[in-house]
Amino acid sequence: MTVKHRYHRLRNTPAIRALLQENHVTKNDFVMPIFVHEGLENKEAIPSLPGIYQHSLSSLTEEIRDIQAVGITSVLLFGIPKNKDEKGKQAYANKGIVQQAIRHIKVQAPEMLVIADCCLCEYTDHGHCGVITKTGLDNDETLKLLQKTAVSYAKAGVDIVAPSGMMDGMVGAIREALDIADFEKVSILSYAVKYASAFYGPFREAAGSGAHFFGDRKHHQMNPSQRNEAFLEAQQDIDEGADFLMVKPASHYVDIIRDLKNTTELPLAAYHVSGEYAMIKAAAAVGILDERDAFEEVFVSLKRAGVSMIVSYYAKAYLS
Ligand code: PBG
To answer: What is the pTM of this model?
Structure first.
């Protein structure tokens, strides 16, 4: 019997596999998410995200030192304020926790690329991503607060603002506000394609940002079934001046990443979210799968799908 194509020949040895490997995961691919909590003296473990902490400003110093030591050069900051209110005022306070953290990192590690999540849900007492009126979320009022937040991050020295609230027009509004304030060098990483996902569960515990009434975020985050809307969302943000686009969550949305890769030249990011991380950690903890191998497979799949940047809670552990 003649077997014409024997593809095993392309995989037979470590040397041939290495020679032919199409996609690689390197330390340059990662962005490390960091939670900074205004109310803390020391770091505090997040039970649903084993290995991840809410940091105080002083434990942030150690965290930055540790992640630099493994070669990570970018961080994504999330803040948890001491006080929350209806309008999320601490999001745009000059001395807000994220603003303080940005200044702190820029003194300690000036070459670290600092990205800051720009959304109100961690700062509002109702846990929603914007201003709430009797009829629901007020998109356009929310844009004004996102503008203020972005400019206050820029004043603190942020490199990249990352709006994550899926408000319509958020990129254009933030770009305009940054430019008017002479921060044309500050970039926008838009969470352009963000699905209403069950996989954000642990994050909402970590950031204390669960919505307290009319439940979910399905009225502004995307329905997981939708593909065409991803193009619309991405195109809107491209037109409004986004510098990078993010797809979120990651693992179950690689088709969307590839669709966007085929349509835009802008760099793409994927956010491997809290639930995706927690799931692998939980399975590994009971011996169901190998933790490192599982994460590596996820990361290389994201590279194969077409991303340039991977936001992952496992970044530090992976490179350690
Ligand atoms: C909103 C925001 C969320 C996440 C990142 N930014 C939560 C949400 O939309 O409910 C989730 C990230 C994760 O699950 O790791 N500020």
So the answer is: 0.96
